[in-house]
Amino acid sequence: xxxxxxxxxxxVNPAEYLPKIDINEADADFICVVSENEDCIxxxxxxxxxxxxxxxxxxxxxxxxxxxxxxxxxxxYGTSAATLLEKHLKTPELINITACYRNDNYAAxxxxxxxxxxxxxxxxxxxxxxxxxxxxxxxxxxxxxxxxSAAHSLYAEAFHIMRLGTGCFPESVPEAPSEQMRKFWAETxxxxxxxxxxxxxxxxxxxxxxxxxxxxVKSKYQGKGIGQxxxxxxxxxxLNEGDKKPYLYCVVGNDxxxxxxxxxxxxxxxxxxxxxxxxxISDQMRDIK
Length: 289
Description:
This protein has 7 helices and 12 strands. By secondary structure, the protein is α+β, with helices and mostly antiparallel strands.
């Protein structure tokens, strides 16, 4: 049942609430999104007082992250907020919603299960805290729109193989290209890099802030050291731009973990990712603002 005193509003300057977030229990990506005042952040209010923050990111595979400030917990505010935010995410295209929580946070695990989310996979949050690498020159350049077909193809294949390899995604199929995705990649081209061999694109990477979101190498060129050279280049690029601790998330069971360990990335904690299908989301909910 929804607490009628709980409302959800688009956040205005959520970064001012960063002091109320416990960095020892919150996910690093959540803290980053809040600090950058991104558009997907919402205030959770009880009688017009902000009692927590949430990420609610729409799409076919939507994402939900709820953080209730310590002094307002165990009052049912989080459950009410989840119900309201699920309605916001329940668009016609929705297939499921993924929520995440640190696996060392038992209360968060209980909360996710109570809200109907079923654990699907886990991912390690890994940080690089060492000096820059001594590297040779590598054939890397900024992504361009004309690269979309080749870059997306190798990215989709690499992540499909990774998902199958972990055993957590037996239903995986390669992501299909689309004009919508191509437009998004073009709009965020500054975050993307390609690795060349001659005129052929053999590697692709996406960087969001300090996060190395993805690094992919074309399957027939794997095992030739390209991934290692590419990753070293990216780490150095981030360090040179002032990012003190480049980080990434590695799905548990992903063979790339050996490379990350070799290059000096260290696990800080592990996130669990839990899923709730569209059919399990109630329609009996109020609107949010």
